[in-house]
Design goal:
- The complex is a heterodimer of chains A (263) and B (172).
- By secondary structure, chain A is α+β, with helices and mostly antiparallel strands.
- Chain A has two domains: 24-82; 102-258, Protein Transport Mog1p, Chain A (3-Layer(aba) Sandwich), CATH 3.40.1000.
- Chain A has helices spanning 8-16, 28-39, 55-73, 108-114, 175-180, 246-253; strands at 104-106, 120-121, 132-136, 143-148, 164-170, 187-193, 196-202, 207-211, 217-221, 228-233, 236-241, 257-258.
- In chain A, helix 2 runs parallel beside helix 3.
- Residues 42-100, 174-184, 205-219 and 221-225 of chain A have low confidence and may be disordered.
- Chain B folds into two domains: 3-71, RNA polymerase sigma factor, region 2, helix turn helix motif (Rna Polymerase Sigma Factor, Chain: A), CATH 1.10.1740; 95-170, Winged helix-like DNA-binding domain superfamily/Winged helix DNA-binding domain (Arc Repressor Mutant, subunit A).
- At the A-B interface, helix 1, helix 2, helix 3, helix 5 and strand 8 of A face helix 1, helix 2, helix 4, helix 5 and helix 7 of B.
Chain lengths: 263, 172
């Protein structure tokens, strides 16, 4: 409130603000995660968490929300969902803190064999093999995240250790709802990948929301490492995140080929 | 972390502070803020294209808080935080200056608490939640022009009360 034209009384009020006795904000985010999980049909738990809720619990709740989102995206009933994520066994991910939902680290060959869709990898020569591969399941069919370090033409993002992240999972993006719910200050550029509708989401907030085929709101963090290209192809949603430009992201997208067998 | 949880973390301080200024009770404010975030989550599908999230959220939180205020038996007065001057840096004021400033704050606080509730709320939202007129209009559910004139009248009444209090104090 740096207004140079404040009256003396307004200046006193502005100064008084720092002295008003407002209690510390309670842990709303973790409590809300619990209630949203309950609303989603998982273990009903309409209660406030104990004050001693720790970071591990908070991460677990956050991870649960992400899993719920992923499952909702493919329209699976939530009642029988078994949550297998365990934040205590997370592999170290120094560049992607607070993103526990990308799953367990594995190999490209194991990921290819384990998911229920044709896993594809970029064939842009500068990228080569991914440095890390993660598989998350549920959702049924799995979600795969390929993580690349710095490569020629794909520099590290500021404050990040990775240059590019490619995620693939089964879901249906409905363009109307996807656009409708984009949040605050995000620039969306319509483009295409192999002639299919695609969206380049850049700048502004890192959040987006969309509806899945069942009409449920799916929320996820759109940007792990940078601006994002998102499109659906053959029933698989693809996200290329962290490419230095739209052109670079499209080059990656259009270079995708089925992951070769390691045998 | 899910996107919505990240949004909650980003706005929870403001939402809670706003709710507290409406209901003046820590537990009621907590419940109102949480209820507001839940309602906002359910209403995401109705979020208007191009709208800003913050005032939209504040309106929902404030509605929840107002509903709770109506059912509350009484509301506590705003109080000053006890302890060290939170704004003081390396150059601490002299004890005399600090005492004078504390007295002036206490007088201003007393003047605010002597106002009627509507005036207290509009002043609190403007200066203690640091909302702009457009956001205050959302929170109060009134047109921006109405909010502006309400704030203006509340400030005039505060000025009047404060002058009277300070005059009484100076006369001993």
């Amino acid at each position: 409130m740096a207004d140079q034209h404040l009256s003396p009384l307004e200046m006193r009020l502005a100064e008084l603000s720092a002295f008003i006795d407002v209690p510390a904000t309670p842990p709303l985010a973790s409590a809300l995660a619990d209630r949203l999980r309950a609303e989603a049909g998982l273990r009903p738990s309409w209660r406030w968490p104990l004050p001693s809720v720790g970071r591990g619990t908070a991460l677990a709740v956050a991870a649960t929300l992400l899993l719920v989102s992923a499952v909702a995206a493919i329209g699976i009933a939530l009642g029988g969902l078994r949550l297998i994520f365990n934040p205590e066994s997370l592999p170290p991910l120094p560049s992607i803190p607070n993103q526990p939902g990308i799953g367990q680290q594995t190999t490209l060959d194991a990921a290819r064999s384990s998911v229920g869709f044709v896993l594809r990898v970029p064939t842009v020569s500068a990228l080569g093999e991914p440095d890390q591969v993660y598989v998350m399941e549920p959702p049924a069919g799995g979600a795969v995240t390929l993580v690349y370090g710095a490569r020629p033409g794909y520099p590290l993002q500021p404050d990040r250790m990775y240059g590019l992240v490619l995620t693939q999972f089964r879901a249906d993006i409905q363009a109307e709802n996807f656009e409708k719910l984009i949040m605050e200050g995000v620039r969306i550029t319509h483009t295409n990948v192999h002639g299919l509708p695609a969206y380049w989401v850049a700048g502004g907030e890192h959040f987006f929301f969309y509806r899945d085929a069942t009409g449920q709101i799916v929320n996820t963090t759109l940007r792990l490492v940078g601006d994002t290209l998102i499109w659906e192809e053959d029933g698989v949603t693809h996200r290329v995140e962290g490419a230095p430009s739209l052109q670079a992201a499209i080059a990656v997208a259009e270079s995708l080929e089925p992951a070769p067998s390691g045998e | 972390m899910s996107a919505y949880e990240e949004l909650v973390r980003r706005y929870q301080d403001l939402a809670y502070r706003t709710a507290f200024l409406v209901v003046r009770d820590a537990e009621e404010a907590r419940d109102a803020a949480q209820e507001g975030f839940l309602s906002a989550h359910r209403a995401l599908g109705r979020f208007r294209v191009g709208a800003e999230f913050r005032p939209w959220l504040l309106r929902i939180v404030a509605n929840a808080a107002r509903n709770r205020r109506r059912s509350a038996s009484r509301r506590a007065a705003l109080a000053l935080r006890a302890g060290r001057d939170p704004a003081s840096g390396d150059a601490a004021p002299s004890p005399e200056a600090a005492l004078l400033a504390a007295e002036q704050r206490a007088t201003l606080m007393a003047a605010i608490n002597s106002l009627r509730e509507d005036d207290q709320l509009v002043i609190g939202l403007r200066w203690f939640a640091e909302l702009g007129e457009a956001e205050m209009a959302e929170v109060l559910g009134r047109p921006r022009g109405t909010v502006k004139s309400r704030l203006s009248r509340a400030m005039a009444r505060l000025r009047e009360v404060l002058e009277r209090l300070e005059e009484d104090l100076s006369n001993g």
